[in-house]
Specification:
This is Cathepsin propeptide inhibitor domain-containing protein. The chain is mainly α. 46% of the residues lie in helices and 0% in strands.
Amino acid sequence: MPQTVEIISTRVLVKHLTLILALLPYSLATRRGSAELGSAFSFSVCSPESIFDAWLKRFPRAYVSERREREHRLRIFSDNLHYVYLHNLRNSSYKLGLNKFADLSNQEFRALYLGETPSFLPLQHGLLQATPISDVKHALGGNTPSSIDWRSAGSVTKVKDQGACGTFWPPKSHL
């Protein structure tokens, strides 16, 4: 048993040393103000929150519920930052960086940009803001038609070639 503990302790020590050595260039570069992560992404301190703050300056966001949403996005950002960091430690044929999508989870990104059904997205986090139908009916004074011909309203256009995207969201209304 002591041998197992020694092996585990050695592994933990190696992981910590690897992390320290990997962060050393960033730490030294930040003293000169020239650290980069990804495409010319500069930051001055290596904590995930300070990197997130610098990222927000480059990719401004207006979160619906400022404090709660920011905390949620910071957690996702930190996970993505960790993923980027671990990937870049490997001797891969490409490097990852932080871009405008760094505060999105994989599921959110796929739903918003790859056409997957976004029904699982948390509406309270501001990506998809929903207005309850009852609010719409109330705003219209309760005079909502039972159906709408979107063609006669000029809201439907001819089918367009969307190229390799392959996504199509048909207009849908449930009033």
